[in-house]
Here is the input.
Amino acid sequence: MAGLLAQRHQAKVIAVGEGPTRYRLPRMLDLSVAAITRPETWAVLTATVPETARFIGRLAGRQAIRRVDPIFFADSAAAKESLGHFAHMARGFGQSLEAVPNTRLGAGRNGYRLIDAMIIDRAAFEPSLEAWLAGQAVRYKASQAIEMTPEGSAQVHIDGAVIEARQVVLIDDAAIIEYLPPALWPALLLRQARSTILTVSNRRMAGPLMLDVETGTMLLQHEEDSLVATGPGRLAQLSARLTRLVSNSGQLQQAGQVGFEGLMTLDGAPLLGQTMNKGPIFLTGLGSLGAFLAPMLARWIAGEASSEELEWCQTRRPDRQGRHQAIAEYAGREEHAA
Here is the structure.
């Protein structure tokens, strides 16, 4: 986002926070599809994902984008219904899906394999990303303090200097939790305990990437003998869920873990923009799609979005009232909300 705003929209940008770290367990996987059911979101994805894939390919080479056939699966009746809506919409927008027999998934579990999705390989992408950001004069800096005004501008204290920022944009959940003023916190937004676990397994899963529609847990076959799971819940909760979800994959031995705080929206839809036109712009609830929607979101922030893109973003404003049925997505269980 920072680089796109600088390169394509001639903005002067400072990325405040930690730069990419190659040895940290992922907080989220960057996947080109999700268990979405809204046709307008599928339309936005259909238009934007190829643009993002071409951009990443030019920037970091073909190895930065991997093709993958993710399996979306569900256990409960409500999650199965949402999975069915997802499959119907995906086919309607040209995606190829095939049902996965529950002998591969587990008794009573429904699943679909979506053919030829894309996932960003961060290890291959991030070195080129850092070089590109430097070429766009985007500086990654750790801030000592940020003094924000009610309008969303700020004074950023970096390396003993004070930089005037016309507009603050909060993109990841940690930044929103730290800097979004309590008075501007939307009623639809809840804090959520989240975890990532790296395990060693002596058997393979039903597919290289699996997504539990009920909880939003993502399971990635990391290497031939390891598995990464990331999703809601504290470490003990995710560990218990992981054991249940991949009980057919042999014994699991934990090799690494991290717990962190994230955000969830009550209606399952993203929150984009300012609250009551005040304070920072913030983006949350995009899940695995965030990186693939970055060019469109950069256009929107820069005021250069198409009418369709503008409408999609505007209907997902943070100050929308109630659980908007027109844009809501299946949000699963809320038991991990803080």
